[in-house]
TrEMBL record:
Pfam families, sorted: Cob_adeno_trans
UniProt protein name: Corrinoid adenosyltransferase
Assigned keywords, A-Z: ATP-binding, Cobalamin biosynthesis, Nucleotide-binding, Transferase
Molecular function per GO: corrinoid adenosyltransferase activity
Enzyme class at the top of the EC tree: transferase
Domain Cobalamin adenosyltransferase-like: 3-168
Family note: Belongs to the Cob(I)alamin adenosyltransferase family.
Length: 189
């Protein structure tokens, strides 16, 4: 099988159950952004030292999320009424359980924190921002066409999960988080 087909050379691509779409259509944009997020999560996994138990758990979860992101992409590409949807409410519930586990292991916060900390936490914060971009693309699609709403809820929950595991990795590495403060003091003379 060849990787290139030349079928997209005129700016169109296939979706499940519909004629070819322009590559910048909201549907293609939405699942294209999911692919970007999935790739970023793969990069993060490649940086984990899975010899450490905390990172082994995280790597296993992130690989599962990669599989679920493929399912989200499939659901977003799908317009066939008879084609079974992949993402159910169980996916978001699973993420909620993980978020709760990490929340119990991190200090409470009452202010916004700046994205950053150790390199892993910084990558995770970046993935969270990319996940929010995916969410915005899906909302744009939802305004125009029907989608599997469980896929949207999963993406919404995923950004919360990425935030919590960024905080968790900072906590585990004794990295102090920087709380947001108003910048007015910088401009006062």
């Amino acid at each position: 099988m060849k990787v290139y087909t030349r079928s997209g050379d005129k700016g169109k691509t296939s979706a499940i159950g519909r004629p070819r779409l322009m590559k910048n259509s909201p549907r293609i944009e939405a699942y294209g952004e999911v692919d970007e997020l999935n790739s970023l999560i793969g990069l993060i996994i490649s940086q984990l030292d899975t010899e450490q138990e905390m990172f082994k758990k995280l790597a296993d979860e992130l690989v599962e999320i990669q599989h679920l992101l493929f399912d989200v992409g499939t659901d977003l590409a799908n317009l066939e009424k008879d084609f079974p949807l992949r993402i159910t409410a169980d996916a978001a519930k699973w993420l909620e359980n993980q978020i709760d586990w990490y929340t119990e292991k991190t200090p409470a916060i009452e202010k916004f924190i700046l994205p950053g900390g150790n390199p892993l936490a910084s990558w995770l914060h970046y993935a969270r921002a990319v996940c929010r971009k995916v969410e915005r693309r899906i909302v744009t699609l939802m305004e125009q066409e029907e989608i599997n709403t469980h896929a949207y809820v999963f993406i919404n929950r995923l950004s919360d999960y990425l935030f919590m595991i960024a905080r968790y990795t900072n906590t585990q590495k004794s990295e102090t988080e920087v709380f947001y403060r108003n910048s007015d003091h910088v401009f006062k003379n």
